[in-house]
Amino acid sequence: MSGKGIVRLGIWMKQAVRRLGATTWPRRWKESKELAFWKAKVKTDGVLANHYYRHFCTTHFGLAESYYDGKVILDIGCGPRGSLEWASMAARRVGLDPLAKEYLKLGANQHKMEYVDSPSENIPMKDGACDVVFSFNSLDHVADVERTVSEIKRVTRLGGLFLLLVEVNHKPTECEPHELTPKKLIELLKPQFVCEDLQVYRPVDPGMYRSIRADEKFDSPGDTKEPGWMSARFVRTANESSGG
Fold first, then answer.
1. Whole-prediction pTM value?
2. What DSSP string runs through 214-236?
3. Which listed site, 113, 154, 195, 201, has its alpha carbon 20 to 30 Å from 132?
4. Are residues 163 and 192 both part of a single domain?
5. For residue 177, with 0-12 CB atoms within 10 Å meaning exposed, 13-18 middle and 19 or more buried, which class applies?
6. How do the pLDDT tens digits run along the chain, 244 residues long?
7. Residues 117 and 35 placed together within one structural domain of the fold
8. Are 87 and 72 in contact (CB under 8 A)?
9. What are the b/e assignments for 212-241, b being 16+ CB within 10 Å?
10. Are residues 72 and 135 in the same domain?
11. Could you please report the per-residue DSSP string of 31-45?
């Protein structure tokens, strides 16, 4: 076999292994890709930055830091950056991620927050335990969106908030297997949650946070079919008996 033939065979074998892994063990395959991403980030960046979470958990959603005094807060799909490091005033700050144990090995064990190793479809917290739940750039990554939303409804107390930042109207990928739309998400969260504020930002930068800071919004966020970054503040107003 010629040198080019060997190269083509190698490429074909890599693609075959990738297809097999993605179809046979989708969750494990996705998590292995995500962990590889974070390991590469730690290798290139060293200490992972987390300073910007303060702004997006407070000012972006019209909340003062004092709002979090004594509250229990939960970040779904938290990653290893220490997303709740800023919230020293909270009574409890929990980062939930199925890769949490691996993140501790990447330096997350230095953070002043709890890391809970669990999928979002089975949150190990009591009903109504959380005052605020965050999902920043994670809801399209989960294995089951509907089960995750059901768990968010369960653990958020009446009057509590769900703060959502997520990419919408994108084609599914290995690590982001769901094509979500603003309308679909608002409907999924009903009737327990009411959407108080909705924006969809144009993807002017590959990064979600930089695109949102650029502040280029679609005029009709609930109806847009273009890819973008959805930002929504939901308040929990209804009981389970209301229908969810």
1. 0.86
2. HT-B-SSTTT--S-EEEEEEEEE
3. 201
4. yes
5. middle
6. 555 555 454 444 444 444 444 444 457 788 898 999 899 999 999 999 999 999 999 999 999 999 999 999 999 999 999 999 999 999 999 999 999 999 999 999 999 999 999 999 999 999 999 999 999 999 999 999 999 999 999 999 999 999 999 999 998 887 788 889 999 999 999 999 999 999 999 999 889 999 999 999 999 999 999 999 999 999 999 776 444 4
7. no
8. no
9. beeeebbeebeebeeebbbbbbbbbeeeee
10. yes
11. HHHHHHHHHHHHHHH
Q: What is the CA radius of gyration of the chain?
A: 19
Instruction: Specify burial of residue 122 (Cβ count, 10 A radius: 0-12, 13-18, 19+).
Output: exposed
Crossing angle of helices 182-189 and 145-155, rounded to 10°: 40
SS3 156: strand
Assess whether 133 and 20 both reside in one domain.
Answer: no
Q: Partners of 72 in the beta sheet?
A: 92
Q: List the one residue out of 28, 138, 32, 33 whose CA is nearest residue 76.
A: 138
Cα-based distances in Å from 130 to 35, 66, 72, 213: 27, 16, 5, 28
Quote the DSSP letter at residue 239. -
Residue 19 belongs to domain spanning: 3-43
Tokens of 13: 């074998």
Helix (H, G, I), strand (E, B) or coil at 189: helix
